[in-house]
């Protein structure tokens, strides 16, 4: 029995309940925002006959009597609240307050109940090898066995199910809806019957629509919203189902059933785990259907030990399919809690169900896992042939085998085995990219990339990123640094298009987590420049201009603008951009050298020789051969032929360095006497040969990486 009490006068102070010696009271984890549930065992005297008064923080109160226990539900004005129950000599006091502000005039009591709250338990697995579990149960969990048979509005259930009856009721509902003298309850009854007819005919979308109409017209006890939630569960519309269950609870539906619907939705939703629903439902000692949902939800949330009690209730189900499913989940909970012997015993009691092919396959897979857990690590390689055979299939045994192979790769220090196994797993079952397989793939990938890049092996880092990275795991990435590193590897290899893709992902992630993304945006612009996308460079720099200025990014930004102007054939404008650059020394140096090259080409050799270093760095931003060739030309113009020939020889030697490949572009017809056996001609031929070789090398590497 329940009573939903309307708000009377908002009174200060707690909600008071009669105290029963030896009784217990605890605040359940908050399963729904704006609502507090307090569980009492046994039921305090006259609790269900009391008129409970709302307080200044509580707008409505309801009591649900379970016989041996009762739940007092408080609907609050604020959505985010704290609650506590305090035992006095003659009463319980339930205190509710906003998270920002404790009860005025009193010290906030310490909340009781579980500590997990809405965050999940995150118990560490008690087994070295684990099965696919939690949100990953979507791979094999038979959804029809999880669907709750919610209470029905018996007076409005159809006596016969047929399409003729659907037509009759639809016509009757249309007729009374046009009349002004019909009661909303009669419309609700007909709408509910239409919903039930469509439900029994397996048209759940239509059923959900009519159940919603029934609730709008006042179906009692929230039964319209609750049956709508069940229909939405069958459709796989988890979020809508959960919202409908919350609405049903507000309208008076039995808390056990509303929590059961929420638990089932949580199991399949694939979002951040919430232990609160499973813990609250488990504390009610629910019927086997609710216990199965509670146990599955707790497993999904990482509450392995807490899942055992409800699953032990679930295995008493009289329905063979649900009982078998509960056995498998119970064995999993025991294994993950560290009790492999008890888990093996539960699996030993498993009995195949007629038509339950998936459950039988899961049993087979879990049996192999138990054999591996009971073996020593030195014996694990002996399971490889069977695991690889199973991994080639398409059912749950393949998923489990790939997950186990990935774990073995970690234990045996075979990172490629882990990466390949987890990669195949998320490719075949896309929802697993959001679960533990995706997280493990991401961890293995990040560790591998960091190790390769930090060790200077850009080619292997780029190859492994191309082979093992999956865009589906990007939402799991919290630290963009490994992705930034691999973008650098691509850029250093001259593979600017994949570098641009990686940098774009880095920028999106930095924007999501609020990290400074100005350097990444600038690197994106530089990648566009390397690819010849000058319009994209201009757009990217304009986007960067709208960010708060940074002396480092501003200097590099201006340097890139100058380069674009040079490539557009406007060296005079480029020189004006380079001249005022201030910032990091390496950027200032490059800007000065580029001014020197512009002056050299323009014949202003006196200033060029001052700006261009006589001993350029081997690995500088401008190739050594370019600078030496420009100096040689200017020395010739300045009337210093001996020095010009010496610089020309050094430029020719520098062309053996890949960084000087474009030297001859800056060496024009200098008019020098060909006293050195055609040094300028040799420079041109060497530059052309190197450019062709570099082009073919880059294309070969890109094709190899992208196979």
Tell me the layout of helices and strands.
Layout: E1 15-18, E2 24-27, E3 35-41, E4 58-65, E5 70-76, E6 81-87, E7 91-98, H1 143-146, H2 163-177, H3 184-200, H4 204-216, H5 223-235, H6 238-250, H7 255-269, H8 275-283, H9 288-300, H10 304-314, H11 320-336, H12 340-348, H13 357-374, H14 384-391, H15 396-411, H16 415-428, H17 436-454, H18 458-468, H19 481-492, H20 496-513, H21 518-530, H22 534-545, H23 551-567, H24 571-578, H25 585-602, H26 605-611, H27 624-637, H28 641-654, H29 679-705
Helix pairs in contact: 2-3, 3-4, 4-5, 5-6, 5-7, 6-7, 7-8, 7-9, 8-9, 9-10, 9-11, 10-11, 11-12, 11-13, 12-13, 13-15, 14-15, 15-16, 16-17, 17-18, 17-19, 18-19, 19-20, 20-21, 21-22, 21-23, 23-24, 24-25, 25-26, 25-27, 26-27, 27-28, 28-29
Describe the structure.
With 707 residues, the chain is an alpha+beta fold. 56% of the residues lie in helices and 6% in strands. It is built from 29 helices and 7 strands. A hairpin with a 7-residue loop joins β2 and β3. The longest helix is centred in the last third of the chain and has 27 residues, at 679-705. It is elongated. The two termini are 67 Å apart. 46% of the residues are buried.
Summarize this structure briefly.
The protein is of the alpha+beta class. It has helices at 143-146, 163-177, 184-200, 204-216, 223-235, 238-250, 255-269, 275-283, 288-300, 304-314, 320-336, 340-348, 357-374, 384-391, 396-411, 415-428, 436-454, 458-468, 481-492, 496-513, 518-530, 534-545, 551-567, 571-578, 585-602, 605-611, 624-637, 641-654, 679-705, and strands at residues 15-18, 24-27, 35-41, 58-65, 70-76, 81-87, 91-98. Residues 1-12, 101-119 and 657-695 have low confidence and may be disordered.
């Amino acid at each position: 029995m329940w009573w939903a009490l309307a708000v009377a006068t908002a009174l200060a102070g707690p909600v008071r309940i009669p105290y029963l010696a030896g009784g217990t009271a605890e605040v359940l984890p908050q399963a729904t925002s704006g609502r507090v549930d307090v569980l009492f065992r046994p039921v305090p005297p006259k609790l269900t006959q009391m008129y409970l008064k709302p307080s200044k923080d509580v707008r409505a109160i309801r009591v649900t009597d379970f016989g041996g226990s009762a739940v007092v539900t408080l609907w609050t004005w604020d959505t985010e609240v704290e609650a506590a129950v305090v035992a006095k000599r003659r009463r319980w006091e339930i205190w509710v307050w906003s998270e920002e502000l404790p009860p005025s005039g009193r010290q906030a009591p310490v909340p009781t109940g579980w500590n997990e709250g809405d965050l999940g338990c995150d118990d560490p697995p008690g087994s070295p090898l684990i099965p696919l579990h939690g949100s990953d149960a979507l791979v094999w969990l038979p959804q029809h066995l999880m669907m709750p048979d919610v209470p029905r509005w018996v007076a409005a259930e159809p006596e016969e199910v047929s399409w003729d009856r659907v037509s009759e009721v639809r016509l009757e509902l249309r007729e009374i809806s046009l009349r002004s003298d019909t009661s909303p309850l009669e419309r609700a009854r007909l709408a509910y019957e239409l919903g039930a007819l469509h439900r029994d005919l397996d048209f759940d979308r239509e059923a959900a629509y009519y159940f919603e109409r029934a609730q709008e017209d006042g179906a009692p006890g929230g039964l319209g919203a609750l049956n709508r939630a069940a229909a939405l569960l069958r459709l796989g519309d988890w979020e809508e189902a959960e919202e409908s269950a919350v609405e049903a609870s507000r309208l008076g539906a039995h808390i056990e059933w509303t929590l059961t619907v929420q638990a089932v939705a949580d199991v399949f939703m694939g979002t951040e785990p919430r232990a609160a629903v499973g813990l609250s439902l488990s504390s009610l000692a629910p019927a086997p259907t609710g216990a199965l949902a509670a146990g599955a939800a707790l497993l999904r949330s990482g509450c392995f030990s807490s899942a055992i009690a409800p699953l032990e209730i679930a295995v008493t189900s009289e329905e063979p399919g649900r009982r078998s499913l509960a056995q498998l989940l119970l064995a999993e909970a025991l294994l993950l809690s560290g009790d492999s012997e008890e888990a093996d015993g539960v699996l030993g009691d498993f009995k195949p169900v007629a038509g339950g092919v998936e459950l039988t396959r899961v049993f087979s897979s879990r049996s192999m896992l138990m054999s591996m857990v009971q073996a020593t690590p030195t014996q694990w390689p002996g399971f490889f042939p069977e695991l690889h055979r199973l991994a080639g299939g398409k059912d749950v045994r393949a998923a489990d085998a790939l997950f186990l192979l990935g774990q073995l790769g970690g234990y045996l220090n075979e990172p490629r085995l882990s990466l390949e196994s987890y990669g195949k797993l998320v490719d075949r079952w896309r929802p697993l990219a959001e679960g533990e397989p995706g997280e493990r793939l991401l961890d293995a990938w990040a560790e591998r990339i960091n190790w390769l890049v930090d060790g200077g092996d850009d080619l292997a880092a780029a190859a492994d990123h191309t082979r093992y990275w999956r865009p589906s795991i990007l939402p799991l990435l919290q630290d963009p640094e490994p992705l930034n590193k691999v973008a650098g590897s691509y850029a250093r290899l001259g593979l600017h298009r994949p570098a641009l893709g990686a940098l774009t992902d880095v920028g999106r992630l930095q924007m999501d987590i609020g990290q400074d993304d100005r350097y990444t945006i600038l690197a994106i612009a530089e990648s566009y420049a390397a690819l010849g996308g000058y319009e994209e460079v201009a757009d990217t720099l304009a986007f960067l201009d709208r960010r708060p200025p940074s002396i480092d990014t501003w200097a590099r930004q201006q340097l890139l603008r100058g380069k674009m102007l040079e490539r557009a054939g406007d060296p005079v404008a480029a020189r004006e951009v380079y001249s005022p650059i201030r910032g990091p020394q390496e950027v200032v140096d490059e800007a000065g050298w580029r001014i020197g090259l512009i002056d050299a080409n323009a014949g202003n050799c006196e200033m060029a020789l001052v700006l261009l270093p006589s001993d350029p760095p081997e690995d500088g931003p401008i190739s050594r051969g370019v600078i030496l060739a420009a100096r040689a030309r200017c020395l010739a113009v300045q009337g210093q032929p001996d020095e010009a020939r010496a610089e020309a020889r050094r430029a020719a030697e520098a062309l053996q360095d890949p960084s000087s490949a474009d030297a001859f572009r800056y060496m024009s017809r200098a008019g020098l006497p060909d006293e050195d056996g055609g040094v300028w001609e040799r420079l041109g031929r060497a530059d052309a040969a190197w450019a062709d070789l570099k082009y073919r090398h880059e294309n070969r590497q890109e094709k190899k990486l992208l196979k």
